[in-house]
Task: inverse folding
């Protein structure tokens, strides 16, 4: 090969590409572990059912608990009948409060109102509260 | 291409960056006989940047509280993806930095680059060295393992040999009469904030000194002549020298790659090289494990405290040696830098080095 046959600018370009490629590969190699390290951990079991003791949920009352990292609530609107809902308001994500005497949820942020089934009664929320499936086993309510 | 040029034009018109870059890269000429030892500064900069980056990442999951510290470190090692990599890079990186610091210092000593007009460069470097060791010491406590706890107990205890004030100094260092959560609090604050800020400032000053004085000419080769040092400021020029960029930058990068390969080799293939069993047991203030030894770079100090009949004499000898080293440029003032023309210095250099290595090995096996 005659080194003069390729112009030096072209060889320079070629070297830049090689060097740039190597640098980019190295940067990617370093960035990947950092990205994984920073990624919020998927809490091991997103499938797990969350147990709530029945006695925590007296008639007409609400029990708030952590459902897979999000606030949720279990109610007993009628004797022996339980409802589990996400407690996150569908408007802008505040956490709703239960008012037993009115038997409704009120959102403190913009006055959204929901009934015990999570249906919107008034205010800005566009959608009902998310209903969570539950099963009853002995004195445990299993949500999820 | 055009966009790149226009961007550069924009900044250049305002800040004159093209001139700045040229002055510091392509027109910054280094002595023709420059050698690989001059790359160690760039190696150290790289290693320190890795410490800062991995340190910030560790802070995300580390909990500085005696009840949770050990567990949080175990979680980083075993649960968080790539936590082992981040932590090992940080912990083993600290050791590689000490190696690089020692090599940098030894080469500067051997080539007598500390001499006038570079006394301040040397002095700032010496402070950096001590601060780096301080970072190693304070960082060692943070995992709150048996090793951390008892190594810190022994290290802080040494100050107790100082007459009159000794006990007060130990109490002050520990924040109590024993190593406890107060110790963790102050070591944590120093390790993640106090010392790194100070170190950053000192490194900036060090680099300023290096650049302002101009890089020294290696005192080797038939054409070398000791430089006439004027008594006013004069930047040391190297007309006809090799450009910093690209020539020396390539060499810097090559040696940096070598050090990174060394670091990664330990991280991947011998991550527990420097961790005895006690590093894997949470701290227990009521049980001292057998054979507590400091890290390898403190072994010389540990052993000197044991050799002398009293710890006070040992501490005095250490203090005298470190003071001598700090003030060396003001003591050793002749203009000669060629090793062959400085037989007394070179002999003491190798003798001292030998004694240090021997004492450290002795300390390791004692
Ligand atoms: C954070 C640690 C340090 C960094 C980042 C650092 C960085 C540098 C850099 C980039 C240079 C110029 C290139 C070279 O000769 O390597 C340099 C030169 C120098 N360093 Fe350091 N250094 C550090 C620690 C030290 C220590 C511990 C000492 C000695 C006590 C020291 C003494 C010197 C001297 C005297 C020079 C001038 C060399 C010459 O001009 O020939 N440095 N340093
Ligand atoms: S967030 Fe609940 S009403 Fe606006």
Result:
């Amino acid at each position: 090969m005659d080194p003069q046959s390729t112009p030096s600018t072209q060889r320079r370009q070629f070297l830049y590409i090689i060097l740039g490629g190597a640098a980019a590969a190295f940067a990617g190699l370093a960035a990947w572990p950092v990205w994984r390290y920073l990624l919020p951990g998927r809490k091991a079991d997103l499938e797990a059912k969350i147990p709530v003791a029945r006695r925590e949920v007296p008639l007409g009352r609400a029990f708030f608990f952590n459902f897979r990292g999000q606030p949720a609530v279990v109610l007993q609107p009628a004797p022996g009948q339980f409802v589990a809902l996400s407690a996150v308001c569908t408007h802008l994500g505040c956490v709703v409060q239960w008012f037993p005497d009115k038997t409704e949820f009120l959102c403190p942020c913009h006055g959204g109102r929901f009934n015990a089934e999570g249906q919107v009664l008034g205010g800005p929320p566009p959608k009902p509260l998310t209903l969570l499936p539950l099963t009853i086993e002995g004195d445990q309510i299993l949500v999820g | 291409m055009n966009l790149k040029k226009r961007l550069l034009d924009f900044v250049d018109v305002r800040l004159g960056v093209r001139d700045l870059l040229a002055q510091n890269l392509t027109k910054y000429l280094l002595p023709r006989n420059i050698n690989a030892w001059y790359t160690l500064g760039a190696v150290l900069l790289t290693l320190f940047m890795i410490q800062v980056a991995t340190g910030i990442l560790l802070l995300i999951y580390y909990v500085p509280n005696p009840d949770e510290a050990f567990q949080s470190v175990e979680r980083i090692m075993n649960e968080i993806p790539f936590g082992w990599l981040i932590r090992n890079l940080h912990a083993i990186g600290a050791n590689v930095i000490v190696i690089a610091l020692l090599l940098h210092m030894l080469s500067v000593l051997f080539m007598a680059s500390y001499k006038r007009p570079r006394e301040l460069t040397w002095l700032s470097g010496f402070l950096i060295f001590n601060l780096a060791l301080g970072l190693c010491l304070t960082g060692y406590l943070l995992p709150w393992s048996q090793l951390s706890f008892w190594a810190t107990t022994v290290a802080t205890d040494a100050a107790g040999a100082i007459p009159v004030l000794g006990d007060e100094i130990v109490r002050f260092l520990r924040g109590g009469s024993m190593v406890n959560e107060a110790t963790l609090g102050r070591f944590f604050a120093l390790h993640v904030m106090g010392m790194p800020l100070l170190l950053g400032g000192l490194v900036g000053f060090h680099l300023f000194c290096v650049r302002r004085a101009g890089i020294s000419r290696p005192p080797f080769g038939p054409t070398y002549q000791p430089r006439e040092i004027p008594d006013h400021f004069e930047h040391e020029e190297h007309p006809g020298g090799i450009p910093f960029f690209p020539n020396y930058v390539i060499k810097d990068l090559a040696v940096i790659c070598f050090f990174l390969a060394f670091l990664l080799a330990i991280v991947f293939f011998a991550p527990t090289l420097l961790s005895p069993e006690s590093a894997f047991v949470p701290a227990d203030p009521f049980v001292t494990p057998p054979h507590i030894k400091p890290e390898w770079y403190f072994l010389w100090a540990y052993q000197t405290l044991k050799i002398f009949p009293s710890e006070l004499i040992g501490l005095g000898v250490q203090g005298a040696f470190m003071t001598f080293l700090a003030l060396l440029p003001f003591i050793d003032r002749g203009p000669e830098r060629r090793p062959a023309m400085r037989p007394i210095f070179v002999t003491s250099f190798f003798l001292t080095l030998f004694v240090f290595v021997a004492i450290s090995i002795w300390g390791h096996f004692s």
About this structure: The domain at 45-143 of chain A is CATH 2.102.10.10 (Rieske Iron-sulfur Protein). Residues A 89, 91-92, 94, 107, 109-110, 112, 123-125 surround FE2/S2 (inorganic) cluster (ligand 2) (CB under 6 Å). DSSP finds one helix and eleven strands in chain A.
